[in-house]
């Protein structure tokens, strides 16, 4: 079994309840997006090309995340890079049009985590990241693996 599949199985152990899974389909991407938003607000140089902009901090963090994903699966890393760049484009637009963008990210983050914990209360199991912090990075690709399986794309 590939390491990524073992991580998906371990993550899936605390995500079997249909309500909890539904909450995760909404809240995991929302949390991931809000974190991209928070990181983008760290002061420093920003590279802009058309509607896209990325701060130095964001570039570093996204590169580290992609490198972690690449150790698990090149296909997943490539898709997540694309998704993160799309999210970064939206974040950049929010940032340039809203001087209090952090409020948006904080709201998304807080509401999403409340629902995540409700989902785990319903599930009756603690969130996976409480045993291993890297499971915060597994949640988004755990969802992606269902999409890839449905599309019959090997990862």
Rg measurement, Å: 16 Å
Q: Unreliable runs, pLDDT <50, ≥5 residues?
A: none
SSE arrangement, N to C: HHEEHHHH
Shape: globular
Describe this structure in words.
This protein has 155 residues and is mainly alpha-helical. The chain contains 6 helices and 2 strands, in the order ααββαααα. The protein has helices spanning 3-12, 18-40, 56-72, 74-97, 101-123, 135-150; strands spanning 46-49, 52-55. A two-stranded antiparallel ribbon has the order 1-2. Helix 3 (56-72) packs antiparallel against helix 4. The model has no long low-confidence stretch (mean pLDDT 96).
List its traits.
155 residues, 6 helices, mainly alpha, globular, two-stranded antiparallel ribbon
Brief account:
With 155 residues, this protein is mostly helical. Helices cover 73% and strands 5% of the residues. The chain has helices spanning 3-12, 18-40, 56-72, 74-97, 101-123, 135-150, and strands at residues 46-49, 52-55.
Explain the layout of strands and helices.
Layout (H helix, E strand, L loop, with lengths): L2 H10 L5 H23 L5 E4 L2 E4 H17 L1 H24 L3 H23 L11 H16 L5
Antiparallel strand pairs: 1-2
Helix pairs in contact: 1-6, 2-4, 2-5, 3-4
